[in-house]
Amino acid sequence: MRVRRTPLSVVSLALAAGVVGASVSVPVVNAEPGGRTESVYESSSPVSSVVSSVVTLSVPLPASAPPHPSACDTLSYLRWRSADGPDSAADADRVLVAQPGVFEGAGAFDSVARNTVASAAEQGKHIEFWALDRRSNCLEDHTGVQAALGNGSFDTATDYYFRDGEADGRRFAGYAEGAQTDWLRDQGLEQTLRDEYDILRLEFPDQAVRKQKVLCGGHSLGGFVTGYFAEWDFDGDPATTDDAGYNQCSGYFALDTSIKSGLGVRGVSFPELPAPLAGVVENGSLALDTAMPVLRLPAVINPETTNLLALAGLAARLRPEETNDLVRRLPENLNITGTLRTLLSQDLGMFATGNPDVRQLNASNQAVLGAILDDNSQPLGFLQASVGFVGGGPVGPKTFPVPDAIARSRLAMGGFGDAPKVSPTRFDQDTVYRWLDYNDPAIADSGPYTEPGSEVTSIDELARSLTEPPLDFTEWYFPSRLTLDLQQKTAPSFAHNHIHRDGVNQNPIISFRSSGGIPVADSGNPRDEVIELPGYNHLDVLTAAARQNNGRPEVVSTRLADFATGH
Q1: pTM of the entire structure?
Q2: CA distance linking residue 227 with residue 523, whole number of Å
Q3: Distance (Å, rounded) from C-alpha 255 to C-alpha 533?
Q4: Alpha-carbon span 355 to 120, nearest angstrom
Q5: Rg for the chain, CA atoms, rounded
Q6: What is each CA distance from 277 to 188, 283, 492, 494, in whole angstroms?
Q7: CA 470 to chain centre
């Protein structure tokens, strides 16, 4: 299956015409019968030897699916390939296909994908990296961010999302809820696995090519999805194994996760329930899923706040040294206030009283982004990256939501990361907090809180990845059923397909474990090569810079390239 790519020279001309710094998407005009389109998009990444595109396939949901937007009858993924490599993925040496983690979109893989493809090209091999997007992302509206990238005005985005402003002829319709999201109750494990299988089947019609070329994997929750994929039988007939998940892949890769069906952390796994009890548990989970098809909380975790991460990245990209562009434009509501207090309060008193008010802190746009996601500030381990350190003013220990002594203990099970937490302590107009990037020499003077060897991600690259790809870094509408399903290996509805329990052991695995990430359980595969990553946090396995502070190439991408090319 082939499709004509848009020449990069066309994109270059568009940039020269006045949209420098924008994410430019150039549609392919002769999409093939069957509904495949591919659009090349320009990138400001320093890794310039990689071509990036977004691919969309027409794959309708089953006729039994609840009412849903027509846009949700498609599947999309981001594709990265070497500029010197073949146009057709079937001619590539290998193709890595990645499942995203919780609240994560395909754009989160941008840095590791580019670095891996470039590393393989240095060895004379041409590989591709594909990052899958869940169907639920069809409900998102990125118009404001993309328009702001195009014209360079942050106001365009905030006016669009906060003030009923217009961008590209559209107005923001608000965040989907109620009947608009009811169809997501069916977007659980079975549909997610079928979607990946359909993408592979459509893009590589020959099963022998899939088995030879494809490496399956994922980040965080995506590793457990891949574990089920390896064990799934897509026609329900155990006698025919061409459709078995493990026969769609030649190997697996785990990015701060484990290729293993069922959720679990080191030393603790959910037990397999006997069929009668499994049926009761599944019925209960389906009732919960019907009541709450989207995983959303009153603060921190919901569509509005996950979109704020993209806006924070946008401000840091467009105006990195300006002050509080996002914070001063945020609406006054309980969700935003609760989220800011939860993420940025120094202690319980500040969280409870709102004094001092985090909105009054003077900080550059880069520092705001750093405060939200850096491992020395962000309290939740699954949202942490090691992107440098705060500068420009005094800091003190951050004891909310828990003190470091508890957060870094075995009791916390890695839920808060392993870095000491700090918070700015001066709220006045004369003090402006700035951000020290991961490779800033001043990191060495950051006292007991950090040191250059534990800072691995560039704040500039993180801001770019949060905003530039057309399929975004964060996921607004995460289907509750997917998490509920992952815990139920013996659910009655899976019995027809969850057949090949040795599927994970059929192929080799490479696993990357960050020192400050989630302590996942081992895969149990004796062919699993586990690589420990000192100084990395949960997001760093995706976002780490190509060149590290020790002067060496980034570990995940180089070892992943070696695994893909057989070195």
Answers
A1: 0.92
A2: 9
A3: 11
A4: 52
A5: 23
A6: 20, 10, 10, 14
A7: 13
Sheet hosting strand 509-514, strand order edge to edge: 25-26, 36-41, 50-58, 74-82, 127-133, 94-99, 214-219, 251-255, 509-514, 528-533
Residue 422 has which token pair?
A: 């700090």
The span from the CA of 86 to the CA of 113, in Å, is: 17
Q: What is the DSSP code string of 54-103?
A: EEEEE-PPPTTSPS--GGGGEEEEEEEEETTS-SSGGGSSEEEEEE--TT
For residues 201 and 191, give the distance between their C-alpha atoms in angstroms, rounded to a whole number.
Answer: 15
3-class SS at 294? strand
**Whole-angstrom Cα distance, residue 250 to residue 496?**
24
Residues 6+ apart with CB under 8 A from 554: 115, 456, 544, 545, 546, 547, 548
d(CA 126, CA 132): 20
CB 294 within 8 A of CB 477: yes
| Local structure of 188: helix, strand or coil | coil
Residue type, 32: E
Distance separating alpha carbons of residues 454 and 441, to the nearest angstrom: 13
CA distance 443 to 459: 13
SS3 468: coil
Q: List Cα–Cα distances, 195 to 76, 122, 202, 238, in angstroms.
A: 10, 33, 11, 20
Distance separating alpha carbons of residues 469 and 478, to the nearest angstrom: 19
For residue 91, give the amino acid letter. Answer: D
Which has the closest alpha carbon to 294: 62, 476, 473, 61? 476
Per DSSP, the three-state class of 133 is strand
For residue 565, what are its two tokens? 């090319």
CA 501 to chain centre: 28
The first and second tokens of residue 522, run together, are 């081992």
What residues does 395 pair with on adjacent strands?
Answer: 424
Query: Rounded to whole angstroms, what are the CA distances from 164 to 28, 148, 198, 310?
Result: 32, 15, 38, 18
Q: Residue 349: phi, psi to the nearest 5? A: -60, -45
What span, in angstroms and rounded, lies between the C-alpha atoms of 461 and 107? 12
State the Cα torsion 446-447-448-452 to the nearest 10°: 40
pLDDT tens track, the chain, 567 positions: 333 333 333 222 232 222 223 333 333 333 343 599 999 999 999 999 999 999 999 999 999 999 999 999 999 999 999 999 999 999 999 999 999 999 999 999 999 999 999 999 999 999 999 999 999 999 999 999 999 999 999 999 999 999 999 999 999 999 999 999 999 999 999 999 999 999 999 999 999 999 999 999 999 999 999 999 999 999 999 999 999 999 999 999 999 999 999 876 665 666 778 878 888 888 898 898 899 999 999 999 999 999 999 999 999 999 999 999 999 999 999 999 999 999 999 999 999 999 999 999 999 999 999 999 999 999 999 999 999 999 999 999 999 999 988 888 877 777 898 999 999 999 998 999 999 999 999 999 988 999 999 999 999 999 999 999 999 999 999 999 999 999 888 899 999 999 999 999 999 999 999 999 888 888 888 899 999 999 999 999 999 999 999 999 999 999 999 999 986
Sequence-ordered alpha helix ranges (H) in 98-142: 110-122
Q: Which residue, among 143, 176, 158, has the nearest Cα to 331 in the 3D structure? A: 158
